[in-house]
Design a protein that fits this description.
The complex is a heterodimer of chains A (422) and B (270). By secondary structure, chain A is mostly helical. Chain A contains 19 helices and no strands. Chain A has two domains: 216 residues, no CATH class; 127 residues, no CATH class. In chain A, helix 17 packs antiparallel against helix 19. The longest helix of chain A has 31 residues. Chain A is globular and about 80 Å long. Helix content of chain B is 41%, strand content 19%. In chain B, helix 7 links the parallel strand 6 and strand 7. Chain B is elongated. Classes of the chains: A mainly alpha (422), B alpha/beta (270). At the A-B interface, helix 3, helix 12, helix 14, helix 15 and helix 18 of A face helix 1, helix 2 and helix 4 of B.
């Protein structure tokens, strides 16, 4: 343990200082709080997408359609579970962050709870149906994009409201619970946020979270040459690290190129693709094992590095979703989100894999993927099935996974040291 | 002791990965057949075929209207098939647009049985070229007047060979018995369409809309001629629905701009 490189020492120090800051501490505690909910939702999501949907890996390979399962009821049930858990992630985090920020300055539970509630209401002020408000009709709330993709916005709202509330409380601190004071602060904040919300909807056409989601999807427009691929990989890792979780691609990333590739394979003999290098054939296939950031490699690195009991538990609990390429529980549970140490491999591992895979496809050492990818396919198998059973693609995937695990390993070690050092 | 336990976790997770990969390895030999049978491309164009004497620009206003109503802007590609089988393109398909409109018009756009049959063949040429370019394997289509006949002929004669699935077909005032006023007379084209009806795709959903200006037709096409669609589609396709539209703009030429029909297209075709 004495042999820590200067970079490691620096990062460990940064992580400890970072973790001690009041803001980050509140975020970490909130992530810990919502972890069970996120885990449950991810499991439901995994089961729904991989086992019950026709595009699911287990559905296809195990022929679930012919089992006598009440598929329709199960699909509806798991979707409901997922919508009720992952679908509210942003709201839960806004509440929790605001709650924990206020918790350190007031002993009164009422104040803490009200700070949380104010954050939730404020978040909703920015996610309201524009036309219903402006046309003076009954107000309709928007509930899309309040899920895991909106976690970042939820956290920001929690920080904004929590800090404001804390500042006000500190100005008027009294030992006793004080109804008029609570009333003043709460109504002050709510009225202010409602005004800001109205300003937002009268100037913007979509809700705050929808606007954010469209920014998040922007990298898709990047061109498909190597710099574009690397840029996309960096941006998607960065966004996930900041809490814009969940899959970025709508509809498994199909584009016209994907359709043309598949058509070429289905109509001609041999494996000649018109577009061997695309976001889909390189980034989706070779760098998202376990989800964005090669989360499966992170999981392997955790188990390789003598984790403490808590991390081992988080690892095991997140194992199933991670094997189905849903990285959310692992990102929230450790957490990877906002962790300076883990940010480095979270960016580096996919970048390295992108470079290696791009070179291999470019040099025609491996065929490019053309078959549609089933949801929940275990990471290393994606390339093998996508290429219709190419062993070289499988080997490349395993090499990528190995290299990524090696990249993660030292950082996971330092992350554990930082945790122990706190 | 502790390190042994740690590595046990690592090997366990590797074992789990391998175990979950097994169904994939076992299933792999069936993959190609599965993909061929079940795969539907995200890219699924909507073909629009104008009636006789109308050009490939016939639906510009309609597409504008549809884009306005639905809120999502789909791109519009116009293809003109020349009599020698060459294609002239105008407009583009946006890179991220999975449901573009593709209007197919013909250099020879005259009425008449022989012309309509030729137009169906020209449509086939355009269809194959577009399919090769965009790699789609399913589509929907709308035909106004004789355009509906062109599409029906194409689906009976050529579609099966392309291995492309037709999802929905909407015909607007398509005269399956041409402009024949006498309901007891069968035109040769009608007989042909009826004889080949078994070749229509079984999964196709068909809507036939008739315009009614007078009580017997839309001013050009007799109601009976549109009504004859049932002899072609009924019991051959997944479902067949007939609708009659009356009111303003219910005469033959104005039907594609009729607000009721715009909403029917919105509701049933898109």
């Amino acid at each position: 343990m004495a042999q820590i490189s200067p970079l490691g020492k620096y990062l460990i120090g940064l992580e400890i200082r970072w973790h001690r800051s009041r803001q980050i501490n509140a975020i970490y505690r909130s992530l810990k709080l919502v972890f069970p909910v996120i885990l449950l939702g991810s499991l439901a999501d995994f089961f729904d997408s991989a086992w019950l949907q026709k595009t699911g890996y287990y559905y296809q390979t195990l022929d679930v359609g012919h089992w006598s399962w009440p598929l329709k009821v199960l699909r509806a049930y798991f979707r409901l579970v997922s919508a009720g858990t992952l679908g509210f992630a942003a709201i839960l985090l806004a509440f929790a962050v605001s709650f924990y920020l206020v918790a350190s300055v007031t002993p009164h539970t009422t104040d803490r709870l009200i700070a949380g509630m104010t954050a939730v209401i404020s978040l909703k002020f920015f996610n309201v149906d524009r036309s219903s408000v402006l046309a003076l009709k009954p107000v309709q709330w928007l509930s899309t994009n309040l899920g895991i993709q909106g976690v970042c916005i939820g956290i920001l709202m929690g920080l904004l409201v929590g800090n404001g509330y804390r500042w006000w409380l500190q100005r008027e601190s009294t030992v006793e619970e004080n109804l008029p004071r609570t009333l003043t602060i709460t109504s002050g904040w709510l009225l202010l946020m409602a005004a800001l919300g109205l300003l937002w909807i009268s100037t913007q056409t979509v809700g705050l979270n929808v606007a954010f989601a469209s920014i998040v999807r922007w990298p898709f427009k990047l061109p498909h040459f190597i710099m574009g691929l690397l840029g996309f990989s960096t941006l998607s890792s960065l966004l996930q690290w900041m809490g814009a979780l969940g899959p970025l691609t709508a509809g498994s990333g199909q584009t016209i190129e994907t359709a043309q590739n598949l058509a070429a394979v289905l109509t001609h003999s041999g494996w000649q693709l018109p577009h061997p290098v695309t976001l889909h054939t390189i980034v989706t296939v070779y760098t998202t094992m376990g989800g964005t950031g090669m989360a499966l490699a992170l999981l392997l690195a955790i188990f390789l590095s003598k984790p403490d009991a808590l991390q081992r538990r988080v690892g095991w609990l997140s194992a199933l979703p991670t094997l189905g390429n849903l990285n959310t529980p692992l990102l929230v549970g450790l957490p990877v989100i906002f962790s300076p140490i883990l940010a480095v491999p979270f960016l580096l591992a996919p970048l390295t894999c992108t470079l290696i895979s791009w070179a291999c496809v470019r040099l025609q050492l491996v065929p490019a993927v053309a078959y549609p990818l089933a949801n929940g396919t275990p990471g290393p198998l994606i390339a093998y099935l996508g290429t219709g059973g190419s062993w070289s693609a499988l080997i490349l995937a395993i090499i990528n996974l190995g290299i990524s695990t090696a990249i993660y390993y030292p950082f996971v070690k330092w992350f554990q040291l930082a945790r122990r050092g706190e | 002791m502790r390190s042994k336990r740690t590595f046990r976790s690592f090997w366990l997770i590797l074992g789990a990965i391998f175990l979950l990969c097994l169904p994939g390895f076992i299933w792999r030999p069936h993959q190609e057949a599965h993909v061929r049978a079940n795969y539907r491309s995200m890219f699924a164009p909507v073909f629009l075929v104008p009636g006789s004497s109308a050009t490939q620009n016939r639906f510009n206003a309609l597409v504008k209207e549809l884009n306005k109503e639905s809120g999502t802007k789909h791109s519009l590609l116009r293809v003109e098939v020349m009599t020698d089988g060459t294609l002239k393109y105008s407009g583009t398909v946006r890179q991220d647009d999975m449901r573009p409109y593709i209007v197919v018009g013909f250099e020879n756009r005259h009425d008449g049985t022989e012309n309509i049959e030729n137009q169906a063949k020209w449509f086939g040429i355009a269809f194959r070229a577009l399919q090769k370019t965009y790699g789609f394997n399913h589509f929907s289509a709308m035909g106004h007047s004789n355009g509906g006949l062109v599409l029906t002929l194409f689906m009976e004669d050529e579609l099966a060979a392309t291995h492309v699935h037709a999802d929905r077909l909407l015909t607007i005032a398509s005269p399956f018995n041409l402009e024949e006023q006498n309901p007891t007379v069968n035109t040769p084209l009608f007989n042909r369409l009826r004889a080949n009806r078994k070749h229509l795709p079984k999964q196709l959903v068909v809507y036939s809309i008739a315009g009614s200006k007078t009580y017997t037709g839309d001013g050009i096409v007799p109601f009976d001629s549109v009504n004859r669609g049932k002899y072609i589609f009924q019991k051959q396709v997944k479902s067949f629905t007939q609708m009659t539209v009356t009111g303003a703009n219910a005469n033959h030429a104005n039907l594609p701009e009729n607000q009721q029909i715009v909403s029917l297209i919105q509701q049933y075709l898109l």
